Amino acid sequence: MDALTKSTKELQDKRNKYIPRGVSNGNLHIARDAQGSTITDIEGNEFIDFAGAIGTLNVGHTHPKVTEAVKEQIDKFLHPGFNVMMYEGYIELAEKLCKITPGNFEKQALLLNSGAEAVENAVKVARKYTGRQAVVSFVRGFHGRTNMTMSMTSKVKPYKFGFGPFAPEVYQAPFPYPYQRPESLSEEEYTDQVIQDFKDFFVETVAPETVACVVMEPVQGEGGFIIPPKEFVQAVREFCSEHGIVFVADEIQTGFGRTGSYFGIDHFDVVPDLITVSKSLAAGLPLSGVVGRKEILDASNPGELGGTYAGSPVACAAALAVIDIMEEENLPAKAEIVGEKIENKLTELQEKYTFVGEIRRLGAMVAVEIVDNRQNKNPDKETTAKIAKYANDNGLLLLSAGIKGNVIRFLAPLVITDEELNKGLAILEDAFANR
Question: Which InterPro entries match (predicted)?
């Protein structure tokens, strides 16, 4: 009896027996096939995908151009290992990434496997280039589950609890949370305050001359889709330039059209020294990269960077197809259209329910904060969980986020059709009503 003839219950039982419970599952159905923004399980039930494999599928499930490119590569070879014998796909993708990322300076690109691996290597090359050891990330930031990136990540449970000791010389700077600003401060006063807090951090916590890099998500992902003021991001960039610190934009979730631009950092009129990319880079295949200033990436000696599977030729073929699709189908522009439609539905729900707090959006990176009420803004994790569960039980893949688990985030593929989007939003409306 093959996998497709097994029942959902049989496979769920096997999952519980053979796979650690530490691997979480937001939806307990078993996927059979997927196209665009719809997944069908082995029993024929359809699910509209508002999760996109946590932001991995900006071009959707099984895009025909990606599938064609992958099949063509598989027929040639699977993996000679770039460290053993080079292949064209790695080189062509590196060139493409250097061209589409911001910055009018000489660049290089290092290819790897996962987002966490990209962040680790950004730290490595920054340390090598500067000769410094300290690393600064931000409160509420998320950068991965390896020891280094777990150390850089802010949320203790479930990501860090019981997994120490953590990597040394990692410090978390304050990051703005405009929704929670004190009522006594205007937006401008609050921005000035968080900029000053950031600068004070380098007096109170770590000296800037010991810092190799500052790593920032242009929009905090797991932290709850927190969008910082433009002036804050610019102040961080200026501080790094002033003190010889490598400024790294972690674009793993914000990249490849998600925010209505190729990269999230584009919205802040800032050019980072390095950018980390992954997730939607290869439409679901494991691939990541560090892209940026040549003098930084070229500071390492032969053999100091790379990995056995880094820059898989099959994943590179998928990524090259993804970049073509982004250009041909103008996905950044589509992101704005998709995001606006989701925001409009959330605004309707906000008018109807007092537990709907702030709606945040940059392109199709959309979130809504669930609170006790809009006066006290206290996080309501329980209601958030009920909404997400109802959605997942009734045909909509939906994720929560936020340090306190009270944010619903939307990462629908940018190629989603109006029919799929409307169907998903109808289920979302029912989820709010039946929480």
Answer: 4NH2But_aminotransferase_bac, Aminotrans_3, Aminotrans_3_PPA_site, Class-III_PLP-dep_AT, PyrdxlP-dep_Trfase, PyrdxlP-dep_Trfase_major, PyrdxlP-dep_Trfase_small
